[in-house]
Amino acid sequence: MTTIDALREQLVATAAAVIVSGAISPNGHGNLSLRVPGASEMLFSTAPTLHNLGAHGAARIALDGAVIEGEVPPINRAVIDMHTAIYNDLPEAGCVIHTHAPYATAFAVARRPIDCWIEALAMFGLADGVPLADYGPRGSAQAVANIRAAIKGGAPAVLLANHGVLVFHRTPEQAVNILGIVEEAARDAINAIPLGGPIPVEPDMRAAALQRAAAFGIVPEP
Ligand SMILES: [Zn+2]
Predict the structure, then answer these.
(1) What is the 116 CA–ligand 1 centroid distance (Å)?
(2) Ligand 1 centre and the CA of 18: distance in Å?
(3) Closest CA to 43 of 27, 31, 29, 25
(4) Beta bridge partners of 166
(5) How far apart are CA 33 and CA 29, in angstroms?
């Protein structure tokens, strides 16, 4: 099996994992990509939905945005730059996922960042919460510039104003994990509103939460 074929299988498995996570709208709208190791390209989903994504539902895209192999419908072509920007800026990023996860998207629509309301955020690189990228038309240069500005602090996730959520990490498993944690934090915060509203973990205790997770080998040493 070639590297690309193996990556196609990994893309299909990742799409299925996103669906299982529930961090996606019922229509499955979203897109995901994997960096092709050792090459300046990515494998990018080309179906309008991540439901039942097949191995044929992927295209090879150069990190300058050029299509190397495969058909990319306009709806997907419009958001290519949102993915390539992450790979170009962050050499360690191996997977990018975008969905309209319902609770996270509620925060994006309200244009409110997610604070460190659940300790998993502190454990997995989001001690400062999930930043909000200002609105820009889907996949536009403005939207991409806003994403780049929002993630300067190192967060592996960002809310896209009036649109959805974007996450990324070294591996697909880690990216799906981040997506699930962001959606869980958003849901828990909304559920906490009738109880007086969510309260962030104290800033000095966020490092403690990370250190304890590291001590048990749940996450690498910070
Ligand atoms: Zn979208």
Answers:
(1) 24
(2) 14
(3) 31
(4) 98, 158
(5) 14
DSSP state at residue 16: H
Q: Show the 3-state SS of 130-166.
A: ECEECCCCCCCHHHHHHHHHHCCCCCCEEEECCCEEE
C-alpha–C-alpha distance, residues 137 and 147, integer Å = 12
DSSP conformational letter for 75: H
**What Cα–Cα distance (Å) separates residue 151 from each residue in 81, 90, 92, 126, 133?**
15, 11, 14, 11, 8
Kindly give, in sequence order, each residue whose CB lies less than 8 Å from that of residue 126, ignoring residues fewer than 6 positions away. 116, 155, 156, 157, 178, 181, 182
| Residue written as token pair 């304890």 | 212
pLDDT tens string 13-59: 999 999 999 999 999 999 999 999 999 999 999 998 999 999 899 99
Beta-carbon neighbours within 5 Å of ion ligand 1: 164
Whether the model pTM is above 0.85: yes
Question: Could you tell me the end-to-end alpha-carbon distance of the chain, in angstroms, rounded to an integer?
Answer: 36
Homologous superfamily of 3-215 = Class II aldolase/adducin N-terminal domain (3.40.225.10)
C-alpha 99 to ligand 1 mean position (Å) = 6
